[in-house]
Amino acid sequence: MDRKHFAASYVNTASTDCSFAGRASGTFNTLDSLPSVLESDDEGIDSSESTHVTASVLPDDENSTELRAESCQGTAAVPSLFDSVRCHPIHIDAPGTDSVSYKIAVPVRIGGCRTSQQMADAVAGGFPISEEDLVTHALHDFVDDKLILVSEHCLLTVLLGFSEVATAPAYSAEGISVVAVVPWVKAGTSPESLDVEGWLLACPTESVGVFLEKLGSCGAMRSGLRDDYCFEQGDNSIGGGCSTVFIARKARTECEMVAVKVIRDTVSAACVHQEVHMLREAQSHPCVIRLLDMRADEIGQSGKQWSLVFDHYRRGDLYDEIMNRGAMKEQLAWKMMKSLFSALDHLKGRGIFHRDIKPENVLLSNETLQFVLTDFGNAVHVSDQPGMASRAGTVGYASPEMITGTAIGCEGDAFGAGVLLYFVLSKATPFYSKLGGMTAIEENTLKCRVPMHYPAFEALSADCRQLLLDLICKDPTRRLTPNKALARC
């Protein structure tokens, strides 16, 4: 194994006084030889006291591995010992507290480790890990797609979107598991550049399952889908096109039902990454589908099978509901649409353009009688000019500006919501053409003449009629916004 350049810091926590006690350094061929320094009392390091460790790569010299250790008695919010390690400054604004600048060590690179699993296995078998080690950072909080880890001595922020996560039991400590988090990066071409770089944490084995689930809900990915989920027998698949949704149970609980969206291997990693990114941005609203987990299992020599895990809604989607049970009464439709307008207002506030509002992408919640918006495969941020200019959506629900590729905001989602309401009330769509074909429907959409002659519309209130017309409006600048539509419900 090539010798790598590492730095490690050690913190002695036996006393409440914070003072510098000593420094040790040496040259080692592999990480496996690092633990021997912990057993030495040279240079003022007391191995009998609990020792905290943080390791980072120092790429200045590829011909040697240097270990630099410092002992600092006591505890401190931001100990000065981190100044001796290669650090990146970060700025944290915590509610109710003064802004504090922290420093964090750069991630570890272990020679020969090309995956997060190899990194976790190497550390689990090569380090004497205990509950007192710094790698046992206490989980503090998750903010959007960031993992915030806090101990008495260090604050670490890790972007989780598409990070690769793996775990392995620590050989030196019963009940402790190593967790490796490797940020998603494109591999280089040289053998050295293929070695992954990431953060190493430790977690009690009894709670590692919950911890990994939380990482997955934030967009981190790991393998072993069928190890953790038991798929229901029989024909329980839903959907087609670029993905298929299966119903499964969590193996850990055996009773919690989930929906697993298995994405076809013809879909690029970049497209999956975009969908997950939009999903993560859209979270924290009760009427937006909740992302529970993300998996990437190897298929063939170099391919990956992407899978996204969501909450399962037994009642199914709105399209099947209307086709099987018929049109909704106006009073119920108003109540249900309120939840959709709320979700769209939430997305608009975050600059997210869903671009595919239709009954098939709206699930029904039995418990709350709400619509739940799903399928963010076409979603883009309004600041993404190339994405906004690309054509997306479903013919018959896509707005005129979406058809022509001239959309500049989220107004097309309100248009789709209007067509969806039309369908809910009449079991029909406004731009259907007897001539058939997508072109005829698009032409009708561009004209934007909304027929109101269906018998189901005869008993509609004037307010509901006006709501339909204000949503299915050709001019996006005059179209009703989700916020204003919400005010009418």
From TrEMBL:
InterPro entries for the chain: Kinase-like_dom_sf (IPR011009), Prot_kinase_dom (IPR000719), Ser/Thr_kinase_AS (IPR008271)
GO molecular function annotations of the record: ATP binding; protein kinase activity
Domain Protein kinase: 231-489
PANTHER family recorded: SERINE/THREONINE-PROTEIN KINASE
Protein's name in the database: Protein kinase domain-containing protein
Source species of the chain: Polarella glacialis (Dinoflagellate)
Top-level taxonomy: Eukaryota, Sar, Alveolata, Dinophyceae, Suessiales
